[in-house]
């Protein structure tokens, strides 16, 4: 009986922790023209450090939005990333100011960096070549609302 209570208690703790972990993942809608995406928000140092590492696939309607406090020169890399990605840099007005299309995974250290060539506040990562498929261009404005 004691072991059953311990097992149930352990299960409840794991369930509670799992719920907390999932509650910390913020998702919002983001529109590129008339195409809607669900994007995961990376707004902490830890979330930005991990990014889309270790993901084996990226759905067509999914992305990750890196949220920085202010416009600045930001740099991305593809460490432990298994898929090609588009890196789309946005200014504080949510306009595209720079892009890297179909960036390959990093295969050996040191990994190449992909810096913004102008100040940006946000970086959107999408499946590789998705920006090209959507005909996304420098100067286009994306729509999303953050809390």
What does the model show?
With 147 residues, the chain is of the alpha+beta class. It has a single domain (26-144), classed as Protein of unknown function DUF192 (Jelly Rolls, Sandwich). Helices cover 22% and strands 37% of the residues. The strands form 2 sheets. It has a 7-stranded mixed β-sheet with strand order 6-5-8-3-2-1-9. The longest helix has 23 residues, at 2-24.
Structural classification: alpha+beta
Query: What is the total tally of β strands?
Result: 9
How much of the polypeptide forms β-strand, as a percent range?
A: 35-45%
> How much helicity do the residues have?
10-25%
The strand order across the widest sheet is 6-5-8-3-2-1-9
Count of the separate structural domains: 1
User: What's the alpha carbon Rg, rounded to whole Å?
Assistant: 18 Å
Task: Give, in order, the helices and strands.
Answer: HEEHEEEEEEHE
Distance between the termini: 47 Å
Shape annotation: globular
Largest sheet: 7 strands, mixed
Low-pLDDT stretches? 1-23
């Amino acid at each position: 009986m004691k072991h059953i209570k311990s097992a149930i208690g352990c299960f409840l703790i794991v369930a509670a922790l799992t719920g907390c972990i999932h509650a910390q993942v913020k998702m919002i809608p983001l529109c590129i023209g008339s195409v809607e995406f669900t994007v995961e928000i990376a707004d902490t140092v830890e979330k930005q450090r991990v990014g889309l590492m270790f993901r084996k696939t990226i759905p067509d309607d999914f992305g990750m939005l890196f949220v920085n406090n202010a416009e600045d020169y930001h740099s991305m890399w593809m460490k432990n990333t298994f898929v090609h990605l588009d890196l789309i840099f946005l200014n504080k007005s949510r306009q595209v100011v720079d892009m890297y299309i179909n960036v390959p995974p990093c295969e050996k250290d040191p990994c190449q960096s992909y810096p913004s060539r102008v100040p940006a506040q946000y970086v959107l990562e999408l499946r590789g070549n998705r920006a090209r498929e959507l005909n996304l261009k420098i100067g286009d404005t994306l729509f999303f609302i953050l809390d």
